[in-house]
Amino acid sequence: MFKKSLTAIFFLIWVALAINPVDPGIWALENILVVTVFPVVLWLDRRYRFSNGSYLTLTAFVVLHLFGAHTTYDRMAYFKWFSDWFGWHRNYYDQVVHMLFGLMVFVPFFEIFYHQGVSRKLSYLIAFLFIASIGAGYEILEWFSMAAYCKNPAAVCADALTQGDVWDAQKDMAYAILGAVMALVLHSALSSKNRNNKLRG
Predict the structure, then answer these.
(1) What is the mean pLDDT of residues 166-172?
(2) What is the average per-residue pLDDT within 108-133?
(3) What is the 3-class SS of the chain, one letter each residue?
(4) For residue 41, what pLDDT is reported?
(5) How far apart (Å, rounded) are the C-alpha atoms in residues 133 and 106?
(6) What is the pLDDT of residue 138?
């Protein structure tokens, strides 16, 4: 019941954020991922049974992505206060979401392999490699989309995509990896603590 309720809430948020996005073209491009990935998540859950916590973090991450698609990542109004507070000149919502991708999606990837009988260490390694690969693949997809669909001069498109940061793609990948490392350490520590508690009990 928890997962069904969460899925229903997700669809309501999706419909709400589809209304009058800042840039309909960017909304459509960003939602290619959602339309492709979310049915896969539902199928994987039926087959491998994600924990409620993993299903929640997956859904929350996609919702965060939808907010970025609705307002565009570089003009994320709900995050502007954060940049203003630190005196930063760019909106860092996109890089925060990249870090949260690694942090929030790592454990679901781990569960897929671990629940199939793959060893804990190997499941951690595979999940980490998935996060790193998808993080790099997303940056390549962004470049391809810009080259294929942007009607402005290349310099204008690149500046809009990177907010003037020439190392934006590398930082995005690094933040995803950082999030994955954080998730690995936290999950490993909590799992070890739970196993020790069971042994004592």
Answers:
(1) 86
(2) 93
(3) CHHHHHHHHHHHHHHHHHCCCCCHHHHHHHHHHHHHHHHHHHHHHHHHCCCHHHHHHHHHHHHHHHHHHHHCHHHCHHHHHHHHHHCCCCCCHHHHHHHHHHHHHHHHHHHHHHCCCCCHHHHHHHHHHHHHHHHHHHHHHHHHHHHHHCCCCHHHHHHHHHCCCCCHHHHHHHHHHHHHHHHHHHHHHHHHHHHHHHHHC
(4) 86
(5) 12
(6) 84
- Whether the CB-CB separation of 92 and 79 falls below 8 Å is answered with yes
Query: Taken in order 31, 35, 3, 184, is the CA torsion positive or negative?
Result: negative
Residue 61 to residue 102: CA distance in whole angstroms: 10
Torsion of CA 27, 131, 181, 30, to 10 degrees: 0
Over the chain, what is the mean pLDDT?
A: 85
The residue behind tokens 């930063």 is 88
Q: Which of 105, 110, 5, 100 is nearest to 48 (CA)?
A: 110
Q: Count other Cβ atoms within 10 Å, centred on residue 108.
A: 23
Residues ≥6 apart with Cβ < 8 Å to 139: 169, 172, 173
The residue ranges of every structural domain in the chain are 2-200
Q: What is the pLDDT of residues 6-20, one digit of tens each?
A: 999 999 999 999 999
